[in-house]
Structure formats: structure tokens, C-alpha cells
Amino acid sequence: MKSLITLLSLFFLLTLSACSMMGTSASTSDITFKTDVDPKANFKGYKTYAWIGSASILNDPDNQWKAPGFDSNAEIKFLIDKNLRDKNMSEAVQNPDTLIGYALGINMTNLDYKENTDKTFKTLEAAPKGALVIIMVDAKTGVVIWASAAKADIQGNTGEAAKSRLAFAVKSMLSSLPK
């Protein structure tokens, strides 16, 4: 349990430094992924899961963020459920093999160095970022056996393009689950 609390604390810090995959363009070239897997875990033995929760963090002191027009937490949970079912895992009410959780973060105050076409050097500009982190925990041991993070620019945040980028990110993340 202590390792789970430590891990969730790390996820909160990660999500504050990044942000969500919401975008007006269906382009996904800006989305990057990182995955860690416990090499000792026997993923063939994991058939069921239960939810341990979720967290959302918004760092937006100037109120620039606009809601995407849908419930992003419900959409993420739906996408994770769908992708886990596609991997022949089912949600269990009792005695699950694994526990699933995620954290979503948006940082509207992020700054990045960008090429300035009028100058020969880079300038510091606003570059809102987002992150989604999904974890899988062995239900018996409480050890995190798989974690994946996606980071992206916020290109806008509405409608079907946002859902499409979110679906791409979740599918890409869960495709890294060992078979």
C-alpha cells in the first residue's frame, strides 16, 4: 500500500509537469509515450481487473482552459475498459487479478523553447501540455507491474478531434501491455 501511495504521488507530480491529449486537430505526432514494465510479472496470468480510482489535476491560474465538451474522465475510463476487453481482460467485482488507475493532468503555464523565424535563436513561449498516466497493480502484492505515460501539446480541446486524440493515446499506451 505504501508503494501505491508513493506511486500516485509521483503521478501527481508528473501530471503537473505535463497535460492532456485534448486537441482540435486529429494529428497525433506531438504525443509521446513512456512505458515501464515489471520484468518479473507474469502477464499471461492476469485476466481480470478492478478500478482503484483516478485523479485529475488542472494547473491554470489564468483560467485559459476550456472544457472539451464531454466528460473526459468518463471517456478515459470507457477507452481503458474497451482496450482491456480487447486484450481479453474483464472487469471483476470480487477478487481481481489487477487494479487499474489513471491520472490526467493539464498544465496551462508550461513554457518551451521554440524556433523564432525572425531570429537565429529560440525563444521561450507558452506551450500548454498535458499528460495521461495509466497504472496496473498486482492485486495480491500491491506492486505496480505496468505503467504508461502519454504527454502531448494542447492544440485546442474540443469535440471529436479531442476524443480521437484521447482514443489514440489510450490505445497506444495499452498496446504496450505484455501478452
Which structural class do you get from the secondary structure elements? alpha/beta
Which word captures the global form? Answer: elongated
Let me know the largest β-sheet. 6 strands, mixed
- Strand segment tally: 8
Overall CATH architecture:
2-Layer Sandwich
Rg over C-alpha atoms, rounded to the nearest angstrom: 17 Å
How far is the N terminus from the C terminus? Answer: 26 Å
Structure description:
With 179 residues, the chain is α/β, with parallel strands linked by helices. It has a single domain, classed as Double Stranded RNA Binding Domain, CATH 3.30.160. It is 26% helix and 34% strand. It has 3 helices and 8 strands. The strands form 2 sheets. It has a 6-stranded mixed beta sheet with strand order 1-8-7-4-2-3, with helices on both faces. A two-stranded antiparallel sheet has the order 5-6. A hairpin with a 5-residue loop joins strand 7 and strand 8 (144-153). Helix 2 (72-86) runs parallel beside helix 3. The longest helix has 16 residues, at 159-174. The chain is elongated, with a radius of gyration of 17 Å. 32% of the residues are buried. The model is unreliable at 4-25 (pLDDT under 50).
